[in-house]
Amino acid sequence: DAGVIQSPRHEVTEMGQEVTLRCKPISGHNSLFWYRQTMMRGLELLIYFNNNVPIDDSGMPEDRFSAKMPNASFSTLKIQPSEPRDSAVYFCASSFAPSFYSNQPQHFGDGTRLSIL
Amino acid sequence: QKEVEQNSGPLSVPEGAIASLNCTYSDRGSQSFFWYRQYSGKSPELIMSIYSNGDKEDGRFTAQLNKASQYVSLLIRDSQPSDSATYLCAVPGGATNKLIFGTGTLLAVQP
Fold first, then answer.
1. What is the pLDDT along chain B (111 residues), one digit of tens a residue?
2. A28, B32, B36, B45: least buried by Cβ within 10 Å?
3. Could you tell me if A107 lies within 8 Å of chain B, comparing CB atoms?
4. What is the pLDDT of residues A16-43, one digit of tens each?
């Protein structure tokens, strides 16, 4: 079975450019999560969706970050404009959750390693 | 107090020994607990979940939960060099029950 698919795997861009990260969750999963991981701050939840609806975006750092989930099989995380401090590994994860409040094991994609110069 | 706390390590154990990884959490209402393993440069991989007090065994791994003490641990028996990784404890918390990860414990198994 295909796992969570993220693209691109690596992204290097200059400060000020728009960055779009993409995620395809595991088929049948109805919860999707975007995380950011850095050495300093560890793994941080940015936003999560349940049945395509954003449930908690309290981890989104600022207005430069936005996330969408237009359908059950696709999500994007966009940074505009990007800054060097946004450099990190961004993970997408998915799970099957009967409700947004229930917690089921999450399955992670391989991540996008983002470098902003 | 951080919501989920782990000793960052590194925890160094000889091959064949038992590795003991610990995690404390602050939300008394948490009902589910997860251990993830993350190899360097890779994504987190779920290895254990536990929902009730006591022990849960899966092969060489045992998860232990004590809700009264707000403590969850992971034991790895007969540790192998391939177990060398960062182990992340994850506990739901907050108003939306989102999963909160600890900073992880780096385990090094010495051959």
1. 568 999 888 999 999 999 999 999 998 888 889 999 999 999 999 999 999 999 999 999 999 999 999 999 999 999 999 999 999 999 987 777 788 899 999 999 999
2. A28
3. yes
4. 999 999 999 999 999 999 999 998 888 9
- Asked if the bond preceding B44 is cis, omega within 30° of 0, the reply is no
Q: B94 and A56: CB-CB below 8 Å?
A: yes
* Cα–chain center distance at A11: 14
Distance CA B88, CA B105 (A): 7
Nearest Cβ partner of A42 from B46, B97, B103? Answer: B103
Q: How far is CA A105 from CA A8, A9, A75, A95, in A?
A: 24, 23, 19, 6
Residues of chain A neighbouring B42 (CB-CB closer than 8 A): 110
